[in-house]
Design brief:
Helices cover about 15% and strands about 60% of the residues. By secondary structure, the protein is mainly β. It has a six-stranded mixed β-sheet with strand order 2-1-6-5-4-3, with no helix packed on it. The longest helix has 11 residues. The protein is globular.
Length: about 90
């Protein structure tokens, strides 16, 4: 996972970073989905706003790839998240 330009690899590192952020509230404004390189993967791009710890909302964008791991089950394979300042 890449968060604000920093790389976090592996389940433990990703979960630790998500815990450090604290309480968040997302509001998605747009979601675009496209097929990926094979039939069992899709690319998702989301824009919206996020409140972190009750502060003023910030704009964000996030791109991730979902890969089907079993029928009806999907795994996040890649994830890039960026806060958009100055909008």
């Amino acid at each position: 996972m890449t968060f604000e330009g920093n790389q976090y690899g592996g389940q433990q590192a990703i979960m630790q970073k998500l815990r450090e952020i604290g309480q968040v509230q997302h509001t998605a404004k747009s979601i675009d989905i496209q097929p990926s390189t094979n039939d069992q993967a899709i690319i998702v791009f989301v824009t919206g706003s996020i409140k972190i710890g009750g502060d003023n909302p910030l704009h964000f964008c996030e791109m991730f790839q979902l890969v089907q791991s079993a029928p009806g089950q999907w795994t996040v394979f890649n994830d890039v998240f960026r806060l958009n300042y100055g909008l």
